[in-house]
Amino acid sequence: MAEPGVETRTRRAVITARATASFEPVGRSVAAARAFVRDTLQGWGHPELVDDAVVLTSELVTNAVIHAGTSAEVLCLRSDDSVRVEVADRYPEREIPVQSGHSLGSPDRENGRGLLLCAALAHRWGVDYSPTRKHVWFHLDLPQRPVGTRSAGPVLPDALLPVAETRVRVAVAQIDRGGTITAWNEDAEELFGYGSDLVIGKPLGDLAAWPHTPGIGTGLAEALRLSRWEGSYGIRCADGRVIPVYASHLRVRDTQGEPSTVCLLVREHERAVLQTPQRPVAEPGSESRAADPFEVFIGSPAPDDLDGLLQRTVERARDMLDGDAAFLLLATDDETELEVRATTGLPAARQRFARVPVETGASRYGSARMPAVHEDLAAVPGAVPLLEGTGMRSVVTVPLKVEGRLTGSLGVAAESANRYSNEEALRLQFAADRIALAVESARLGELERLRRGSLSFLVEASDLLAGTLDRDQTLALMAQMTVPTLATWCAVYTIADQASDPYLSYVLHEDEDRIDGLKALLSSIAPPDPVPTPGARVWSAPGDAAHRAALTASVRALDHPASPLSSGIDTTLATASAVAGETVVLPLVARNRVIGMLTLGRPSEDHFRQEILELAEDLSRRAALALDNARLYSERVAISQSLQRSLLPPGLPVIPGVEVDVIYRAAGEGNEVGGDFYDVFPIRDDVYGFAIGDVCGTGPEAAAVTGLARHALRLLAREGFGGPAVLERLNAAILDEGARSRFLTLLYGEMRPQPDGSAILKVVCAGHPLPLRLRPDGTVEPAAEPQPLLGVMEDLELYEQTVTLDPGDVLLCVTDGVTERREGTRMLGDDGLAEVLKTCTGLTAGAVASRVLRAVERFAQAPASDDMAILAMRLREPDHN
Prior knowledge:
The chain has 5 domains: 15-92 and 114-141, Histidine kinase-like ATPase, C-terminal domain (Heat Shock Protein 90), CATH 3.30.565; 171-273, Beta-Lactamase; 298-358 and 368-447, GAF domain (Beta-Lactamase, 2-Layer Sandwich), CATH 3.30.450; 468-637, 2-Layer Sandwich (Beta-Lactamase), CATH 3.30.450; 648-875, PPM-type phosphatase domain (Phosphatase 2c, domain 1, 4-Layer Sandwich). It is built from 19 helices and 35 strands. It has a 6-stranded antiparallel sheet. A 6-stranded antiparallel sheet has the order 14-13-12-17-16-15. Strands 24, 25, 26, 27, 30 and 31 form a 6-stranded mixed sheet that branches. A hairpin with a 4-residue loop joins strand 6 (171-176) and strand 7 (181-184). Helix 8 runs antiparallel to helix 9 (422-466) and helix 15 runs antiparallel to helix 16. The protein is elongated.
């Protein structure tokens, strides 16, 4: 029931505007009443109240004209702080579904739902009775609109214009090019309290409370320079108040030819006095044109809000023809297909971005280019593919055309047959003609944003893909770039060679909890065929498998409702739901070979947009090349590492009384072979050979010399040749390689352990860094003298030097990657290495090698640019226990 105190206050409120309309007891009156309230509130400048008011009016008018079966009268009243809407009918039944505790009953009841909505949405509501009629009313409070809020409403006939309380005053101020006030009329003095002598000569900015709206860069100075500007801001009055005003600025030239701006200002709620008409006003005497959505078809959507514009269009079209559903399709760039972009009243199965052909094919949209009325779709099945299976019987469709080009199609459908005639088609066509240019402009703006975004996306994708040569990382990047930007989930299949089947290599879903279930589902079905045809093709197997899995899970859930398996059933259903939408496959083609497939999926309520598929195709080409490069690089690395391992000894021999340890570090990422090498091997009983060398350069040529050197050393040494003879023959073999030969630095020696714990060394150092001997007392000295390197001169006269190592002595052999370690102009060198070795007294051979490596790594911050080999041999000291 009404609250008497509240109603009394409401009646004392000052009514500033009113509008009324009557509606006959027919079904289409509900849509007409919705449109009447919507247009009235928009005309009064209150679009923020439209949604709630239209919902409430729709329910109350439905109760009157449908359930009560009487005519209804709708009255809209605007006061200073609220809007009141009354719906009156001639069925004064006093039974109101109000129960104890102020409950309004169950929402499932057929009647009383309008009052439920009033209680939920309205700030105040109530019911008034008279002997002949019943009034149900509700109040919606006006929001506090901040200064600077700009809103646009449709042009209204005179009967719906707001009623001014007093004489409308229009303040006129003239502003020169510097922003200074040069003229100020009497209405301005009355409105703002300033005499002309107080404001002339002052900047308008001193009085204007200009709004700083985020995203709007126009300031007061810019607005004054524009040829025409309209909008709201505030003026600071003499008493300190800020009055919201609506202003119209017009740029003119004064009598001296100087540019200035004439500002017309009224109180904000009287904006209709100045607001520029956007559409022609209905001619006087036309029948109820103001209440027709056809007259104010789309309101004032943002110029770049295409989806909002299309959705508002279909809703207004449905209301205008009192339909049960409406839809709008936009033509593709080649105008061969129409794409679903907005619907209302249709089931979710009518997926967005679904496409139907215009001219050819079994499901062609035959009525796209001309207005058409289908009185009964049952008689012409397939005429409108979008409506198949929706229960719609009659439909009217009209084209959207700009400069003779088909840009889209607008349709309104009803569940009953024979609902529409040519008259409705003409009305809808006229409305479509008025909206077509705005739709096309917004569509072109959207396409431009998509193209710019696509270019940015592809540039970033190319950079990321070019930044790695790791196969697994490339697969992960492919998936992460597509989800969720292009698709809800994706899967990447790879093909090792022409004889191999596609293999599921990577799966990603925007919901991480569904990745495992999705992977299991895809693993249970055959992979897509590796077809090299470019472009995306639909793959139905995941959707079919998801449907079967959902049916099976549902049956199990019914058979075992309290089973511990219920959580697994829920997971299966969730996964099936995630895969039940559209799935497309794009081939990954590189170097004229299909190396895999990129699979993309969307949820069931959406189709892939053509622009998204084209972007995905561009990405797939880049990803395929990156994946193939990663494959080739991985193969090259594997070959290089295998070859590198073959050039190094498989293990180290056990030498009695001698600790031996080796550290080998290859520079780079393992993509080069050759370079440094080492070897320790038995020659004969109690005699062991050791070598460490460095071939000039890297790559296959260096690897060939490395292999030649290591194997020749073992062979010649075991044949009984001494050190000089071994190196001289190796030098000849290198020179025999001709142009492929490389010079080689080599330290070669033979070690013979002695019964007293010492060892006799015979050493030849051919151009290699000298071996260093560390004594237990910390003394460091070279253990050989330098001699010519190999692979340069034919006649070499090499000699060997004999050195006796005592127990506790350490022999350190390194390649030049250690001694030539640099940091700027500094180099570690032989002296730096000797200083490091002096700190290694008492350490094992392994500890010595490790300490040298750490010293080399810490010497410079940059990664090593040369291979390093460190060979340490230490004679054990006798155990005195």
